[in-house]
Every structure is written in structure tokens, then in C-alpha cells.
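pls read this protein:
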Amino acid sequence: MQQPLSFLTKNSSKQIFTKEVLIKGQPVQLECLQICGQTYSIMRGLVTVVSLEDEWYEDVNDPTTIIQVLTNSEFKPDLFTFWQRLPEIEPKYQYHMEWESIAALPVQSADYWFNKQISSRLRTQIRKAKKDGLEVREAVYDDAFVRGMTDIFNEAPIRQGRRFWHYGKDFETIKRQFSKYLFREDMIGAYYDGEMIGFIMLGNAGNYGVPGQIISKVKYRDKMTNNVLIGKAVEICEKKKLPWLVYFYWTNDTLAEFKRRCGFEEVKVPRYFVPLTCKGELVLKLGLHRGWKAALPDQIKNPLKKLRSFWYDFKNK
């Protein structure tokens, strides 16, 4: 039953609660607010921004009502942001809108992916890996699977040129932290010579599949493990009649080439920013609503990323 608007606008500061989430691999107490049966997160910084906590998996049911609630509440956020998930790519609202680029792979079938959506070179590499003994199969989240995760996480402190978030965690920590969303996830494991060398935790977002965690051992890089895992994820999406596999944002980082090789393409979806205070309006006009990092031009960000990678490599020699 939807809560009455008057209930939501009175003593709203008392309705704020915290929940533990992982941010950059570390447990953080995130401030949240329940509105109309959905959980919204609160991010404080230059401005206070409210957004749907699980926006990859849910749609905002009624943006107009949410905006009205936040505008009239005692809790005064500066901005409300939300987006349209696939397949809704045509703008539906009149609020300030910017395009958000996501990496999406249209799913027809596993055979179509293998024969049409990836290159002949990658097909050859995958065939060789399987011939050499790489096996990828659906798995269950049991102690053996978690031990495999722990071993993979603790193989290397640096991944993709930065400190790896989950390095150094023990079995019990990993088992607890990654069990939260099992109700919507399928486990996929990659095995070589009896050893788990990679895995995907594939989330079901209703409109598409999401590889919430995909990783494999560096020492078996030649096995094309992550590519084969993506192929299995496509197979599961086909089985569950999910028309897309979405690998989060389309960015120019170290994962970009991997996404292209696996058949992902850039798809733009509308994201809306609604100022709720004068401060919110000013920050939106100045282009700082996505944070100072997003406001930096690539000419500055790219050298900083290279410097970071150099520092981590030097520090861990």
C-alpha cells in the first residue's frame, strides 16, 4: 500500500535510516530514505543528491510524486536524479536531461553471440581455451565457491592500474559481503585443471542481465577466461529471456577494449537532474552536478590516471 503524501512530508529527517553497502569494496553506512515503497540513497558533498538506491535494477515508479515529496519535506536535498533503464531510451520527461552511456550487448542467442557478435580471432582463442581444458559452468554459492572467490581476490593487490578493492579479505568477510543479492543472481564459475580461476555473479535486472562481479586469475590470462564467462552469461540471458546483457557504463578506461571485443556497444539512455534548491540550480548551471571528477576535462584526467597506475606499480614492486 502506498504511503500517504502527508506522512512522507512530516518529520522526514526522522525517516532517514542507514544501511551497509559496499562502496569501492569497503562497507559504508549509506543514508537512505523510503518513499512510496522504494529506497532512495542520499549522497552528501558539494550538494546533497537523492537517487534511487538500486537504479540498475528498478525504475522510479512516479518521478512527479517523488519530486513533490522531496520538495515539501523537512529534509532539503539539492538535487534529485534518475534515469530510464533499457529498453526505454527515448526521453519521457521535461526535466533537465543528459545522455548516460552504458555498455549493452543485445542478446539473441549464445550461438549468435559466438558466430556474429565477436571477432573470428576471439572465436579462435575461445576454442583453444576450451580445447586446453577450460570449463565454464553454472555454480552455486557454497563454501567451495567462496573459497575460489577468496583465492582469486587475493592473487594480486593491483588490477587495471589501481589498488584492487577486495584484496586482503578473508573467507568469512567475502562470504558475508557477497551474499546480499543472491536472490537475484546466478553464479557462473570458470575451472581449469580442477581450480576455479574466474567467476561471474550475474544479476537479473528484469529488463537485462548485469555481471555485478566478473573477475579471473591474472596468471591464466591466456585462457581468455573473462571472455568465455561473458559467453556463458549470454547463454543464461537467452534462457531467462533477457534481451540485453549490460556491463554498466561505457567508458574510456582499461575495460573498454574488453567490452568491445565481447560485443558490447554504446547505448545512450536519458538521465534527469531536478534541482530542488537554489544551490542545486546553481550547481547544475555550473556543470558541477556530477561531482568535481566528472567536471575535469580528459586532458587532465587521463594523465592523472597514468600517474596513479605508475604509483601503484612502483609501490608494489
